[in-house]
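#onboarding

Welcome to the new folks! Below is a worked example of what a typical request in this channel looks like: someone posts a single protein sequence, and someone else replies with the predicted structure as tokens. Don't worry about understanding the tokens yet, we'll cover that in week two.

Example request:
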Amino acid sequence: MIDPTAESPEPNEAEAVELDAWSARFAREPVGQVPIDLICLSEGASGVLAESSSAADVIRRKGRLGKIIKVSLKYGNRSWGEALTLAFDQVESPLFVISEAGAEWNRDILERLLKSVDHCDLVLGCRPCESVAGRMARRIASFARGVFWGAGVADPLTPYKLGRSDVFRKFPLQSASRFVEVELVAKANFLDALIDEIALPVASPWNPPVIGPGLRADQRGLFRKPRFRHPVSESHGFLDATEPSTDDQHDSEDGTDAFNPSEVLPRDSSGDARTPGIDG
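Example response:
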């Protein structure tokens, strides 16, 4: 029988367990109700579309939307890797989302990602695959990516990515094509990030990824000479950044604030080891 008059221990005392060095590598503090910056990928959409995208709307309704950073190659033969590296330099909130301007989001998707990121550094939402052949092909591709790149996730190009910002400022991204999203997972994994992949049954169906031109060159360059330190180099204008205000007023007519690439400062950091990604 429990004595109702007995003093119960404080929650912190009851749960205070000192972790050894190995276990501590796999422990993450819950992120709490922090803002989320949106990195919106686009190959031709305007800043207005990024601002009014489904991802921005869902995060805004949740009361968590921070800065919106549009990543586009509209300036010519630029690199997705350089553009995303600059985007991460502009992220200010503790959490970020990488999505596409045309991707459909809903509250359930965001809730699932937020629940998972409490125990990891990066969570990817895996889109449902309707065909048996497609699921088999995806499993094989996931296994191959895990063996060769340490990025054994089923849906690396998913427009449903949520992560902790501090991890992804540590390294540059060097791929010119959309293979950069595989590189993102591989380098984070190598630098000891915890990566999770969860099923999103309510998301739009998965289609075979289209990496675009430059895939083979990116794979060769990343395999032969991966870079984990930010070089001191000139910045390029890939981005438009906006900070949504409560009254939805913006400094420019199209809803975006101009980004000054000269303000980007290179960072210098490195790491080691690995922690696997998920499923299939």
